[in-house]
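Let us work through a complete example step by step.
Step 1: write down the sequence.
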Amino acid sequence: MSENTLSDNTLPNVDARVLDIPSIDRLLPAAPSRHPPRILLLYGSLRERSYSRLLTLEAERLLKHFGAETRIFDPRDLPLPDGAPVEHPKVQELRELALWSEGQVWCSPERHGAMSAVIKAQIDWIPLAIGAIRPTQGRTLALMQVCGGSQSFNAVNQMRILGRWMRMLTIPNQSSVAKAYAEFDAAGRMNPSPYYDRVVDVMEELVKFTLLTRDVAPHLTDRYSERKEAAEALDARLALDAAVR
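Step 2: predict the structure and record it as tokens.
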């Protein structure tokens, strides 16, 4: 490779009109939001004594202690994806909560080595876009799972893939509670344990990441490829208008 090639910093294949230069100033909002972080929590079981629901309730208590405003979606009566029109009341409730949220918690039992159908149905009902609004993009996400036996990470790993696909800012930490039936007392409260300590870690981290990113999420998730596509569409429309004239 020649010296000239090594020193050539030109970008002939880049559309300079829409190329953005990341700036620290744009990542430091002049007036940070002061309202409590808005966190939506989803759980993945309809059992009367659902350990994913009990773990979600513990997470909510912690989030409230950390100053967050919370909402838990009850998945009962939510139809299967595409099994009802989007105007269904439960679908509309879920979508409105997703739009309201600045961060989310997804908690699933592990069933047959995977996340449950109940949590997947909720995620599938949240679209990538509603018109020009994206109800998940740029929102923070924390992941938890409960296991009937030894500790596993299959469900949280699958949900992490979904979170990335939906362009959410999935935090590094996560929680997996082994033998969940032994980790809650008769009243449904989680016993003191390293598993509980990890839930505290995860919720604390979620609030920190939400506070850090919520005001700059549009800048963090803005993409060159999308700006280029929009510019090319505008160019084509202007060329067509000129030809018509």
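Step 3: interpret the result. The mean pLDDT is 91.
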